[in-house]
Amino acid sequence: MRVLDLSRPVVMGILNVTPDSFSDGGSYNSVSAALSASEKMVLNGAAIIDVGGESTRPGAPFIELSEEMDRVIPVIEAISRNLDVIISVDTSRPEIMKEAARAGAGLINDVRALSLEGALDAAVKLQLPVCLMHMKGEPKTMQKAPRYSNVLLDVLQFLQQRAQICQEAGISRHSILLDPGLGFGKSLDHNLTLLRELEQLVALGYPVLVGASRKSMIGAVLNKPVEKRLYGGLAIAALAVLKGAKLIRSHDVGETFESIKMVEAIMHGHEV
Questions:
Q1: Residue 249 catalytic?
Q2: By the 8 A CB rule, do 163 and 178 touch?
Q3: Is 260 a member of any domain?
Q4: Among 93, 229, 246, 249, the one annotated catalytic
Q5: Which CATH number do you get for residue 231?
Q6: Taking a C-beta distance cutoff of 8 angstroms, is the pair 75, 31 a contact?
Q7: What is the CA angle 246-248-250, rounded to 5?
Q8: Is pLDDT above 50 for 25?
Q9: Containing structural domain, residue 91
Q10: Contact status, residue 257 vs residue 235, Cβ threshold 8 Å
Q11: pLDDT digits (tens, 9 = 90+) for 169-213
Q12: Among 215, 229, 246, 261, which one carries the catalytic annotation?
């Protein structure tokens, strides 16, 4: 069994096996293309490959279970057979969680924080680590004028509550990761606030994942299209690590790995 070492920050490589993801939709629609991309990410420093079959970009519809299953499971099986890397399954559905675990997944990454019917029970039975993310609303409507009385407190309270529910159900505290959900039902100002105050999420005592790679918040600040948001994403990755994040989810694995390694060398010395 592969064990994820979070004594140092790591990179989670994004592998969207979907036709409509905002950045790389349609790029890895065959198992061979997905495996090749995964091999490259591992060579470039990815500690985790995050496989997702449902696009959660703003405006994305909820797809049929069978379609998500057909996209995700063969890819997880291929990666598990061929690569020595931890596989994360980016899903909210209990059926996918179960099949993904059977196929070799070692982490559940759920944008809905195990809130769908049966998801929490499935996660408890599987006893895999889980990443709980904050999202306001659903992908199809989440970016339609999201409002908070206090975005930081709302996100902290939600994630703390979900983590507590998971522990009471039987998931170990040491198996829970938290993600503030940048871009998921949040305005630019909301996203910037969450990054600025990220230490407060880290202070809850769970490993924190940050995923900002190529997102619209970077485009809004830098006035750049999706394919030209690398440098903004690296700035966020470096800042997040300085503030205590342990996982950085990225499309650009090699560049992100080097950015994190440089930050770690400054913080802890060269031998990192």
A1: yes
A2: yes
A3: yes
A4: 249
A5: 3.20.20.20
A6: yes
A7: 165
A8: no
A9: 10-268
A10: no
A11: 999 999 999 999 999 999 999 999 999 999 999 999 999 999 999
A12: 215
